[in-house]
Amino acid sequence: MRFHTRKWIKPEDLNPNGTLFGGRLLEWIDEEAALYAIIQLENPRTVTKYMSEINFKSSAQKGDIVEIGIEVITFGKSSLTLGCEVRNKMTRETIITIDTIVMVSLDEDGKPKPHGKTKVEYVSDRIKDD
Questions:
Q1: Which sign does the torsion angle of CA 79, 123, 26, 72 carry?
Q2: Are 16 and 78 in contact (CB under 8 A)?
Q3: Considering 48, 66, 74, 127, which has the largest number of Cβ atoms within 10 A of its Cβ?
Q4: Which residue, among 96, 20, 28, has the nearest Cα to 63 in the 3D structure?
Q5: DSSP 119
Q6: Which residues, in sequence order, are bridge partners of residue 69?
């Protein structure tokens, strides 16, 4: 799993218990999955279709730094299925895991659009040598 994004837990990210608000974390995960899928599928019209069961394992406090990890599970015809793990850099504990996040590539009319991708591409894969 590649960890792409770090977030610093600030007071506005906390719930009444003084720990990281789950809704804020899910917002960050959804945004990270969307950015990852948009880049992989090369289509800014990529949306979240499905998230599987969400398993909170631990939490984070104000001042902690969390990392969001995303990995590709499979490429579909118009979709990309991802897995996610978020971990606390301060405690080294896993905060949450999501086994399945399905992102779908859409056309201009909002209908699923085949993307033709079959494997993860990195920037170096897209740069042509002359």
A1: positive
A2: no
A3: 66
A4: 20
A5: S
A6: 3, 85
- Residue-wise pLDDT for 12-68, tens only, equals 999 999 999 999 999 999 999 999 999 999 999 999 999 999 989 999 999 999 999
Task: Classify the C-alpha dihedral 67-33-81-124 as positive or negative.
Answer: negative
CA distances to 31, 41, 51, 71, 75 from 103, rounded to whole Å, are: 11, 10, 9, 13, 10
Residue-by-residue DSSP string for 35-77: HHHHHHHT-S-EEEEEE--EEE----BTT-EEEEEEEEEEE-S
Residue where the block lists tokens 């909170």: 56
Alpha carbons 114 and 95: distance in angstroms, whole number: 34
Q: Indicate the residue type of 18.
A: G
Look at residue 66 in the predicted model and tell me its pLDDT.
Answer: 98
Q: Residue 114 pLDDT > 80, yes or no?
A: yes
Q: Domains of the chain (ranges plus CATH)?
A: 2-120 (3.10.129.10)
Nearest to 96 by CA among 34, 62, 52: 52
Tokens representing residue 115 in the block: 């993307």
